Amino acid sequence: MKEKRGEHPLGDLGQLISLGLFLLIWGGDSFFLRISTFLSDEVPFYIRMALLAAAVLTALYLAGSGHVVVSHKHRPNRVVSNGAFRYVRHPLYLASILSYFGLAASTVSLFSFALLIPIFLFHDFIATYEEELLLQKYGSDYVAYREKTGKWVPGIGRTR
User: Where are the domains of the chain?
Assistant: First the structure.
């Protein structure tokens, strides 16, 4: 499999599989089988919708601001540390994870929440791989960025 510039060779395929599997499990459990959504009766609708809205709005900001690194027209040739990259090193991956979280929270699908664990581990795996490529490409500039920016949560996961 051909490696794209700066990305894990299985990153796109893995993300598509994650998306398909998540939507299948979330949709099937939430709207048809309702096996693991029994807690939705205990969590008020407005709380579930507030969690969904917060997750989706944050994901939209992260994806919109982070898209600059995958734009084929203006792909930067430096360490990007503005926009969403000011807060986390992987805003596009975090946007995906937050979207999944919001959907799972909206119906309190425990199966979907459980699926978030391997999805997060996959994203962390490809992010770590890509960080090594960035380290090789940008050296001390990327080290300095990594020291001040959290991997997934602002201020958490900084390297020193």
Answer: 11-148
